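Let's sit down with a protein and look at its sequence and fold side by side. Once you have written the record down, we can walk along the chain together.
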Amino acid sequence: MLRGDLQTGGNAQAASEDVPLMEGSPKGGTFYDMLFPDMSLRRIIVWISFAQIVIYILSCLLSENLTAPSVQVLTFLGATYGPAVKQGEIWRLLFPIFLHANWWHLIINIMCMLNLGLVIESKYKKGNFIFLYVLSGVIGNVLTTICNPCQLAVGASTSGFGLIGFSILEIFLAWANLSRRAKNYYIFNVSIFVLFFLFVSFSPTVDFFGHIGGFLCGAFLACHYNRAMGYDL
């Protein structure tokens, strides 16, 4: 989620030992299967990604710039901005998860969302996934408006960090029940995104507090969902 100088440019018996992500773990061994596990047009995260691409193209067209949308257009379309939120523009806590500052920003977020989101949605089903995705994004944006109220912020990485927090906590909770193959797979995938996002989070143009808010929300929901499904925590 970019900000800053945008102004300048167990109890249940599992059928597999790969608990808790067993139902969404990759079925094949190809690179594509690892990158996009259980890819299907039935997954809402795929359609969310399509929507983000369409909105990005629209924002570029409105900006008359094919490479990146302008600050004015991002503000008009609902970028997070503390003073505006305080004046009642509550939609600015939700809309930014569909807005992006440039192609690189969009692609990285979509890659993370698909890689982690397909697995989570496969197990927890559409409604629970949407709640996780949206709430993580909103909580991240709320924290941004509190800690950096005068900064513009856009991007789906608040929701992306929610998926990262969810995945890390779920793996931790079920570590003893995971096979070696599953451990290696999830450690590799999650570590790549964590290291990358930690690296970019310290850039002056990245919304650090939005990432923290999304991560904490995702971690909390991982505990809640697994307890509700009857896994030993």
User: Anything to note?
Assistant: The domain at 23-228 is CATH 1.20.1540.10 (Rhomboid-like fold). Residues 4-24 have pLDDT under 50 and may be disordered.
